[in-house]
Specification:
The chain has 517 residues and is mostly helical. It is 79% helix and 1% strand. The chain has helices spanning 2-9, 23-49, 51-58, 64-80, 82-96, 98-116, 122-125, 128-144, 147-158, 164-202, 204-222, 228-243, 251-257, 262-269, 271-302, 307-335, 337-359, 365-388, 398-414, 417-428, 433-450, 470-496, 498-509, and strands at 19-20, 466-467. The chain has a two-stranded parallel ribbon with strand order 1-2. Helix 4 (64-80) runs parallel beside helix 8 (128-144) and helix 5 (82-96) runs antiparallel to helix 19 (398-414). The radius of gyration is 26 Å and the shape is globular. It starts with a helix and ends in an 8-residue tail after the last helix.
Amino acid sequence: MVRTLLRRRKKSLNAEDVSVADRPKVRRAVAAAALGNTMEWFDFGVYAYLAGTLGKVFFPSSSPGAQVVATFATFAAAFLVRPLGGLVFGPLGDRIGRQKVLATTMIMMAISTFAVGFLPSYGAVGFVAPVLLLICRLVQGFSTGGEYAGATTYIAEYAPDRRRGFLGSWLDFGTFIGYSLGSGMVTVLTLAVGQDGLVDWAWRVPFLVAGPLGAIGLYMRLKLEETPAFKKEAAYVHEQAVARGEPEEDPVEEARQSGKGRLKEIFTQHWEAVLICMGLVLLYNVTNYMVTSYLPTYMTSTLGQNETTAQLLVLATMLLVVLTITTVGRTSDRWGRRPVFMAGSVALIALSYPSFVMIRQGGILWPAVGCGILGLLLVCFAGTSASTLPALFPTRLRYGALSIAFNVSVSLFGGTTPLFASGLVEASGNKMVPAYYLMVAGVIGLISTLFLHETAGKPLRGSGPMVETPAQARRAVAHSRTAAGREARDIWIRLRHPWARRHGQDDDRGGGPGMTG
């Protein structure tokens, strides 16, 4: 009887606890989520490569150095409102669903980026011009506050457990494709019309391209279904309400009503996961924005290198990241997330300084090697983050907790990287400041990784296993029931014969009282 009770107490898996991934839906989910990141980073690539040009258009009365700082200050301002976007969109995604929020953020991003292409210059309307630019950047930043966390959550909840790293890496594949498209377009325009044509009118063209991109992304996201994990969570909340005798309501509405007090729960019960998430996000995004947003300006404005050469080197670095990122994601499925993050952090500490020494040499070869090293360091974090960060939090809080932790860290440390780096170089005159900046990020990332629990191949917190085939689902249920039976048997033996375990251990060592001469 006791053994029967123990069996019932042990939570073994049932068939309904295991989800089988629908491959066409998984492909659509990955494509739609990645396209949103493509559009977001298309804008970032354009803005980074046009920093000097936009400074002349919107801040013409300043010195060249001050123009760059002012442009990056406007760039950083968008990141200051990202936590507000995370506070709004994150908990909302946990209440009404991931798909609806991701469609909303796509609309806002597309409109705000598209609008930049129609802004008047400082010469036309004076001080109003940079104010309008700032407003567009703030709207874009607010919408982005719910974009990356929602996209990573969406892919993670659709992906099979054993392939989450590989499928999640496609999200950041979209990131760097978008950056490469944006920066590539600016490079082509620079070659085609020259710097004067770029300042006069051609700077508008890349921003106007964001309109059609946004329309395509919105169409794809409106066709998506809600994730299986969110559906199960909403259904569970609904069942609990029915059990309490409350009126039956739509499961999504029930999930929305259960959102009260989630912020308090995030910071009181999951603060360790929040801190780990912030540390890993700092590591990834400081490296990311240093390479993608600051490096082109550093090579031209600070080092005085040829603008086209610098743009092509950074563009080639992004293509290197694109070519290797899914391989890193697949590797994290096989080796684990912690080893990849740890190796990348140690390498960032050791190789940042040599990389910037090479970049400062001038010419093509050594700067290309230095940029390539930074790209390979960046891909260690870019290929792993989308599968690591959502696994830190349970389903009912995942979107909100990840949005808040991610955006606070990005706002304080990631998006401000170009501003702080350019300001510190301008103030100190030390051109190796970016290398020191990356080394500090590597130390913080290494400490965060030491506290990270391995999640590769395991179900997301608060969710059952996600497998690829019905046969895998049957094996998972059978294995769970076998494990539950063995654990119940072991508990029964320890309760009935407390000396048996010790004797067994002694037998294993070959010298216990269970041995006979």
